[in-house]
From TrEMBL:
Pfam families: GFA. PROSITE patterns: CENP_V_GFA. Keywords: Lyase, Metal-binding, Zinc. Residues 2-114 form the CENP-V/GFA domain. This is CENP-V/GFA domain-containing protein. The lineage of its organism: Bacteria, Pseudomonadati, Pseudomonadota, Alphaproteobacteria, Rhodobacterales. It comes from Ruegeria pomeroyi (strain ATCC 700808 / DSM 15171 / DSS-3) (Silicibacter pomeroyi). Belongs to the Gfa family. GO terms for molecular function: carbon-sulfur lyase activity; metal ion binding. It comes from the Bacteria.
Length: 123
């Protein structure tokens, strides 16, 4: 089971599903919201139990981002046309047992760091 929460603990989530697609996103939106890269994995939305007052921000016409209005933690990413939801790997309580499968939107990465692992890159 994966359990996680925001920084203040107002929002908690759990899943017994096996997370898929562990990735690091380097897009401008993730950089602005997280202060750097955003690491996440996804599960079917029906398999993620969320408790607490998630605030949703429609970051584009195709997706929304879920965060805690109290502490500002960026916890979730959800495409409007998919039945999966991504959760922040940094918000997981304890080890995840996952390994990165890819880096995404690397064309938008900041110029202040290098990607130093061998995971595949996608623009």
């Amino acid at each position: 089971m994966i359990k996680g929460s925001c920084l203040c603990g107002d929002i908690r989530y759990t899943t017994e599903a096996a997370p898929q697609g562990a990735s690091m996103c380097h897009c401008g939106q993730c950089r602005r919201q997280s202060g750097g890269v955003w690491s996440s994995a996804f599960v079917p939305e029906a398999d993620l139990t969320i408790t607490g007052p998630v605030s949703w921000f429609a970051a584009s016409d195709t997706a929304k981002r879920g965060f805690c209005a109290r502490c500002g933690s960026f916890l979730f990413w959800k495409a409007n046309d998919e039945d999966t939801i991504s959760f922040s790997l940094g918000s997981v309580d304890g080890p995840t047992g996952l390994r990165l499968t890819k880096h995404i939107f690397v064309a938008g990465k900041g110029d202040y760091y290098d990607i130093a692992d061998d995971a595949p890159h996608k623009d």
